[in-house]
Amino acid sequence: MAQTRNRRIVLGITGGIAAYKAAELVRLLIKDGSEVQVVMTQAACGFITPATLQALSGKPVFTDLWDSRVTDGMAHIALSRGADAIVIAPASANFMAKLANGLADDLLSTLCLARECPLMVAPAMNRQMWENKATQRNVAQLARDGVAILGPASGDQACGEVGLGRMLEAQQIFDEVQSQLAPKLLAGKNVLITAGPTFEALDPVRGITNRSSGKMGYAIARAALDAGAKVTLVSGPVHLDAPASARVERIDSAAEMFAAVKKHVKSADIFIGVAAVADYRPERVSAQKIKKKDDDMSLRLVQNPDILAWVAAQPKPPFCVGFAAESQKLNEFADAKRRRKKVQLMVANLAQHAIGADDNEVTLLDDAGLHKLPRAPKTVVARQIVAHVAALGTARRKTRK
Ligand code: CTP
């Protein structure tokens, strides 16, 4: 499986109080495995220091068109070449006016003009400046020129006013950047995903569950959306925000998850079972809180349906992906599970490494064999899994009525 190189992002920071959010954006991009080259305008340096951004990005920050560190004196060319995207956050009204008119009077505006890659701007300004006809004219021009406008949001402003013009939060900008840059490998596909744990009630206050955080399933939902898919996410109880553009069904028990999957599976081209579904549930659910007695107590558990195996056994099943969390003999157990459940792809990980963590190390098992992926943030692993599903060519919907 081809390993994609790290993304190279040039992050341009212009003068505005929202510049402090750029520090968090750098952190998110770096955590996701991107290389980030920060370029600041003089005005930006009045709001946040280059030293902060240098520490977070691990690279010297450029502010000057005539920077002596670039030996041929062409910093604008050197910095924009090889970039996968230029992201301006925050983008001031003045900077957008320069961009809309093709002005190039400092390093950042010059490298935007010299770029060969997508340009995204996250406006940040007072609401009157945003509403001003000149700004709106510039925004419309930038959109016509193919520049992606991220936001702005509405809300409290640094000046004390309330309205449109606030910069998006760092996480929202990060998500938008991912979405803009992702190849649309699953365009037009319906993807059904289960995620998180299930909760098997014993009585109104107690139940059996597991330590699944839902992070891997949510990351796959995000990656599939970014790849152009329509996503239905059937989620057990987790403390995560679902991607805004996913259709989300929140459930507690395996039985509820099964019912939700049955409802949506007919229109699914791809089914990805990431959930840590409880294999057993209490035979009886007490309507009242179970009272302590003097003696020990035993619980009788009955089997839950295997949702993944059921989906894969349908007459015209979607392309099925399973997850195997094992504590030993990873590849052997995972491959046996793949064959038993008759799924095209099994993603194997060691339970003790994966559960609750932000990173994961997985091996993909399919008919062609094993593909071990390096340890990486779950967001990165999710993109690689989505790319692998698409590459298997089976993402194409089988001829089903
Ligand atoms: N799965 C499912 N329904 C179940 C149990 C599991 O859909 N009742 C799915 C999971 O979402 C996952 C895959 O099956 O994609 C593997 O789950 P796992 O619990 O590791 O497999 P089991 O068959 O339950 O095997 P084990 O004995 O290891 O628990």
Helix/strand layout:
Layout (H helix, E strand, L loop, with lengths): L7 E6 L5 H13 L3 E6 L1 H4 L4 H8 L17 H6 L4 E7 L1 H8 L6 H7 L5 E5 L3 H5 L1 H12 L3 E2 L3 E4 L5 E5 L3 H12 L8 E6 L4 E2 L5 E2 L6 H12 L3 E6 L11 E4 L3 H11 L5 E4 L6 E3 L18 E3 L3 H6 L6 E8 L3 H12 L3 E6 H4 L4 E2 L1 E5 L2 E4 L3 E2 H14 L10
Parallel strand pairs: 1-2, 1-3, 3-4, 4-5, 8-11, 8-13, 11-12, 13-16, 16-17
Antiparallel strand pairs: 6-7, 9-10, 14-15, 17-19, 18-21, 19-20
Helix pairs in contact: 1-3, 1-9, 5-8, 10-15
Bound molecules: cytidine-5'-triphosphate.
Cytidine-5'-triphosphate binds next to α12 and β16.
CATH architecture of the largest domain: 3-Layer(aba) Sandwich
> Which strand order spans the largest sheet, edge to edge or round the barrel?
12-11-8-13-16-17-19-20
The best one-word shape is: elongated
Binned, the helix content reads 25-40%
Assign the CATH superfamily of the largest domain: CoaB-like
DSSP strand content: 15-25%
**Mean residue pLDDT:** 93
Question: Which regions contain 5 or more consecutive residues with pLDDT less than 50?
Answer: 395-401
CA-based gyration radius: 25 Å
**Tally of separate domains:** 2
What hetero molecules are in the model? cytidine-5'-triphosphate
Termini separation (Å)?
33 Å
Number of helices: 15
SSE class: alpha/beta
CATH class of the largest domain: Alpha Beta
Major β-sheet, in short? 8 strands, mixed
Q: Kindly state the number of beta strands.
A: 21
CATH topology of the largest domain: Rossmann fold
Description:
The protein has 401 residues and is of the alpha/beta class. The protein folds into two domains: 8-181, Flavin prenyltransferase-like (Rossmann fold, 3-Layer(aba) Sandwich), CATH 3.40.50.1950; 190-282 and 298-400, CoaB-like (Rossmann fold, 3-Layer(aba) Sandwich). 33% of the residues lie in helices and 23% in strands. Strands 12-11-8-13-16-17-19-20 form an eight-stranded mixed sheet, sandwiched between helices. The chain has a five-stranded parallel sheet with strand order 2-1-3-4-5, sandwiched between helices. Helix 5 crosses helix 8 (133-144) and helix 10 packs across helix 15 (378-391). The protein is elongated and about 75 Å long. The two termini are 33 Å apart. Mean pLDDT is 93; it is low at 395-401.
